[in-house]
Amino acid sequence: MPVLDVQNLRTYYYTLRGPVKAVEDISFQVEKGEALGLAGESGCGKTTAALSILKILPKGGKIIGGKILFNGQDIAKFNENDMRKKIRWKGMSIVFQGAMNALNPVYKVGDQISETILVHEPKTSKKETKERTEKLLEFVGIDQSRADNYPHEFSGGMRQRALIAMAVACNPDLLIADEPGTALDVIVQAQVLKMMKEMKSKLNLGMILITHDLSIIAETCENCAIMYAGKIVENGDVLRIFKEPLHPYTQGLIKAFPSIKSAKTEMTSISGFPPDLLKPPPGCRFHPRCPYAMDVCKKEDPKTIEAAKEYYVACHLVEQQMK
Q1: For residues 249 and 236, what is the distance between their CA atoms, to the nearest angstrom?
Q2: Under 8 Å between Cβ of 210 and 48
Q3: What is the CATH architecture assignment of 4-78+213-322?
Q4: How many CB atoms lie within 10 A of CB 162?
Q5: Left, alpha or beta for 40 (phi > 0: left; psi -120 to 50: alpha)?
Q6: pLDDT digits (tens, 9 = 90+) for 236-274
Q7: How far apart are CA 199 and CA 82, in angstroms?
Q8: pLDDT bucket at 290, cuts 50 / 70 / 90
Q9: Tell me, what DSSP letter sits at residue 88?
């Protein structure tokens, strides 16, 4: 049984101009000890999907359909009290984008990690909490003596590591990382990602890694889901997606990304702009930008089909080619 099984999730933001269809009928699974990369352009719904799973949507956001099965339980039906006591931090946790904003600037880093443990495991003694906090810091590569430092005394990479230590403090089954390399230089980013990969294996964590950087997914994840305008258009084994992408949008993303290993090729961008999710185009949401768009693409929303074993694509062209 997967640690997370998202089925036909739909999340809208209700505004004065109407509902923004940020996440529309997406499905994916995450197994223990495996990482799923969630990729796509800015505004495609990646972060909204993560916030929906944890049920921490901002004001105006609402899950209007679908199931979120966490260890077999549909947490989409859980109330706020159940989510806070049973799921968040203890069952699943999140590393937010922007480490400095996620840490309280007036509390010591060690105290913030300790608070996470004490709030969710109140029977833990202060001595044990302190020992666990120090071990967590060492686990993420920070000397335990730095527990008494404030966030501004940490570098960007250390703050990100401290957030990861906080996220795994209560031994969750699932970790969501939202753009964990943001604002870090490439060397520190590589160190943080390597640590997360090792941690995933050691703790047998399920992981969702949200990023627009395909190289991070290729290096860190076993599976990948490509999102476009609130929908998942391609989902499956990460190596297959990079070597043999089927959806025109995925092909465009990969062509727009430079490679240091393959032969020199000219990078090409995807023409046009993502659609307004207040009024998304009829049919396939990618059809206004797709070089292979057919009449059916403009009228009918493509069904998600299994193009290969455990490999899914939502594209009329791929469906026709398989017939």
Answers
A1: 15
A2: no
A3: 3-Layer(aba) Sandwich (3.40)
A4: 26
A5: left
A6: 999 999 999 999 999 999 888 776 666 666 767 888 889
A7: 27
A8: very high
A9: B
Cα–Cα distance between 227 and 238 in angstroms, integer?
14
Please compute, for residue 95, the number of CA atoms within 13 A of its CA located in the half-sphere on the CB side. Answer: 31
* Both tokens assigned to 114: 């300790």
CA angle 54, 56, 96 (to 5 degrees): 80
* Residue 176 · residue 54 · CB < 8 Å: yes
Long-range contacts: 304-311, Cβ < 8 Å, 24+?
304/27, 304/232, 307/246, 308/236, 308/240, 310/236, 310/237, 311/235, 311/236, 311/237, 311/240
| Structure-token pair, residue 133 | 């906090």
Residues 6+ apart with CB under 8 A from 236: 223, 224, 308, 310, 311, 312
Side-chain-side CA neighbours of 7 within 13 Å: the count stands at 11
Q: Residue 98 has which token pair?
A: 């922007």
Give CA–CA dist 299/286, Å, rounded. 12
**Spatial separation of the C-alpha atoms in residues 273 and 229, rounded to whole Å:** 10
Tell me the pLDDT tens digit for each residue of 36-89.
999 999 889 999 999 999 999 999 999 999 999 999 999 999 999 999 989 999
Domain ranges of the chain: 4-78+213-322
Which tokens go with 235? Answer: 């989902």
